[in-house]
Amino acid sequence: MAHHGWGRSLALSIVIPAYNEAPRLRHRAASLSDAVTSGVIDPWTTELIVVDDGSTDETARLAQELLAPAFPQLRILRLGENSGKGAAVRVGAAAAAAPVVAFMDADMAVDPAQLPQLLEAIEGADVAIGSRVLPDSSVQYDSPQRIVMGRTFNALVNALTNVGLKDTQCGFKAFRTPMARILFHLMVVDRFAFDVEVLSLARRLGMRISEVPVQWQGTGNSTVRPVTDSISMAFDVLRVRSREKWPHIPALVVTADPEQHEPVRERILDEAFSTFRKTDPVLPLPDNRALILLPLCRSNQVSGTAHRLARSSHHLTVRKRLVSCSELVGMMPVQWNRGVEVIDKVQRFDGPTWSERRSAIHAAPGVGQNEPADLRLMPALEA
């Protein structure tokens, strides 16, 4: 039975960071196609973004060849050089057009068929993470070294940071897209320990984190080097703990004329269909002002957004500024879910919730609407 709105707007962006993953893609890409066939993933309301992190093999070509038949909204982004898994996920988050963005590892150690559990959790949280240590989880490791490495690293993380989670490194996470953009803009660590910094920042900003049990199957041929990468990750965790400065987030302060009585934030949400990204946070300020955060935007994009918004109404004054992480922390507590009503006003789900759609198989005749393709912090090319 068709539902109004399905296939007309994106509901989910899936980001897959990939570095020299051609061999594993040949064997594991079928699990994504199977998730579409079984109805777990709706290909018309889901975009799949594969970020090729400077691979020297045929990762990009194979991703296009193997995944395009099942995903009409497949995008292949290519980085000019290997920059790290965190950097690749950041690029994917910047390009994501849906109100929820998830990322998973290219080895599919967590089968995509488990996506519904992750997406059900995000309905009541800002961040949902797969965990291999919850009572209902099951794990089959491909190497005893990975068990020791994982337990040692998580003990280090919880001893040195405020994360308070037993498994930060499972490559199966979902975010409300505005939260993802804020977190990945502030993130500085680009390689394996980026998850720790992202989750630590989420804690600082009062975001709600939900843990989900997963069935995790080691696939062999891991790109993780147990000794070298463990040392590098330990140093990254120490840097996360000692960090005092993070990148500033570009933003716009919008002020209404004194004679305008309608709350400026509501006016922005009503008029902003074409002025800025549909999933950018809009927060109220005193004196009938509003703050639009534009994380992962370049300066020319910020200037263009300011110009379009000012031009949309003669009763609005728009001023560019930079917002520090400390300022965001000082605004806490912010009810991020309620404070980002732009998701509900501009990109409302017309169909059922993820839990209601879990067992439904639906194919819509149209293709969802995408955001502009150039919303990235660092250069990337569409393959």
What is this structure, in a nutshell?
With 383 residues, this protein is α/β, with parallel strands linked by helices. The chain has helices spanning 22-37, 59-67, 85-95, 115-122, 144-160, 177-186, 194-204, 226-242, 264-271, 299-312, 325-330, 336-339, 342-346, 354-357, and strands at 12-18, 46-52, 74-78, 100-104, 127-131, 138-140, 172-176, 209-213, 215-217, 249-256, 282-285, 289-293, 316-323, 381-382. It folds into 2 domains: 12-242, Spore Coat Polysaccharide Biosynthesis Protein SpsA, Chain A, CATH 3.90.550.10; 249-346, Alpha-Beta Plaits (2-Layer Sandwich), CATH 3.30.70.3400.
Description of the structure:
The chain is an alpha/beta fold and 383 residues long. The chain folds into two domains: 12-242, Spore Coat Polysaccharide Biosynthesis Protein SpsA, Chain A (Alpha-Beta Complex); 249-346, Alpha-Beta Plaits (2-Layer Sandwich), CATH 3.30.70.3400. Helices cover 37% and strands 19% of the residues. It is built from 14 helices and 14 strands. The protein has helices spanning 22-37, 59-67, 85-95, 115-122, 144-160, 177-186, 194-204, 226-242, 264-271, 299-312, 325-330, 336-339, 342-346, 354-357; strands spanning 12-18, 46-52, 74-78, 100-104, 127-131, 138-140, 172-176, 209-213, 215-217, 249-256, 282-285, 289-293, 316-323, 381-382. Strands 8-5-7-4-1-2-3-14 form an eight-stranded mixed β-sheet, sandwiched between helices. A four-stranded antiparallel β-sheet has the order 11-12-10-13. It has a two-stranded parallel ribbon with strand order 6-9. Helix 3 packs across helix 6. The longest helix is centred in the middle third of the chain and has 17 residues, at 144-160. It is globular and about 65 Å long.
